[in-house]
Amino acid sequence: MLTEKPAWKDLQKHFDEVESLHMRDLFASDKRRFETFSLEACGLFFDFSKNRITHETLRLLLSLAEECDLDDKRQAMFSGEPINNTENCPALHTALRSDSRKPVWVNGHDVMIDVREMLNGMREFSSAIFAGEITGSTGEVFTDVVNIGIGGSFLGAAVVCDVLMPCAGTGLKVHFISDVDSKEVIDVLDMLNPQTTLFIISSKTFTTQETMTNAVTARQWINTAHGSDSAWINHFVAVTAYTQRARTFGIRQDYIFRIWDWVGGRYSLWSATGLPIVLYAGMEQFEQLLAGASEMDYHFLHALPEKNMPVIMALLGIWYIDFFAAGAQAVLPYDKRLARLPSYLQQLEMESNGKHTTRQGQVVDYDTVPVIWGQSGTNGQHAFYQFIHQGTQLIPADFIAPMRSPYGIGEHHTVLLTHFFAQTEALMKGRTVEEVRLVLKSMNLDKVDIEKLLWHKVFTGNRPTNTIVFPELNARTLGSLLACYEHKVFVQGAIWDINSFDQWGVELGKMLAKDILSELRGTDISDHHDASTQGLIRYYKRHAS
Ligand code: F6P
Taking 90 as the threshold, does the pLDDT of residue 175 lie above it? Predict the structure, then answer.
């Protein structure tokens, strides 16, 4: 067990020694702290100096990674070993963006051949759409693409499309339908022309209920508008690992893009799941995204552990989760285009590492992934930041921002960044009683009023943050950033000894929902349900129509 490892025990002792240290003092006593605890790779600058660590903390955390065989586990992932042991398959998202000519073998087959074919297929298909050679049923060129998919078949592509908005010059607009809520479908379809809309049904399994329900509605919408039961055929593309299911649905063979079981849903944006990105921003932008991710893969594989961005990010997370008992981690991008990044990371981190058993099925006696949450920009400063500054819980936070904005209206971006820098400084330094007293005195308050306000205005500070900055947010830096988080998740999974690539936790809900659907449609209610669920189903039947 992890908690028996020497480095873990040393970290526990070390925690008792450093818990009370304040980062203000650590900065004051080490003029080179910023230089020591920061690093640059793949166009990203990572400042981790505002963390509650010393040189010794880092040394011990790195020893922990070594004792957990991180090197061998990382090698196993990149070389295609079946590290997803509960589903008996590799996790080879790194092969999807590899620019190496080296083969990657899975069951005696070089998957790089498939990857190259997939990319060629995406290139050819998108070129034919742009050239107007592939059209809708009435021969009109496509103007809009709607991706129907959920989870990993939605979030990654949506984040990238948001970011690439300023350079999306293909002429096609992109939309996403993920939830099965009718309002979501109506909101998108209402603004579109069925003659010029192309749907991508993106589902690794091609069975996900929300996606299939939305696909059937979209099919009906196209057919009704065209007055033909077969019109939809020219408006539907599928991305799936189960091509036969897509054919059974009726999708044209030449409009089916294949992914494989070795591409995890939440790691799939680099595959044909990224087709909406290509149609929206072009193949070159998609290739830039892959190049940024590939550069991060190289860094992760080859950089020394103490200079390795995903390794350091992961270890800092473990330090707070397992030693400071931090139950949450905030993600705070200061760029509207990254508004969906917190949701994307929620799935990436919480679906990957929200597990309580080791790879061998033993229940763990330590915490794994915390709650990941956040919001972009300064709105959060006027809402939940109060809790991060003065609440009773320790919330480590990642602050992320580009130094330039492509929009460049007046001083907007400068003002935005002013807040960005001020927040991490305030969280680190806080404000002492003496400082507050001085401020209140300078406001000419009398003694009674000063004492009344004093403690309300004290900030303990010592609240940890990582800062990730880069010159501009483009396809390449985004590729590096997302791959960095993927590898952070991998390192944490390797240390916690859990399988980061399965998701049994979501299966139970999916299964029960299927049973309940037949009960909501019919008259019977199974007595297998608990009294609460039976009561709620009865309530539905009384009020649904
Ligand atoms: O939420 C569970 C999950 O299986 C995710 O892992 C996946 O990204 C999502 O559902 C969608 O699955 P599919 O691509 O098979 O429709």
Answer: yes
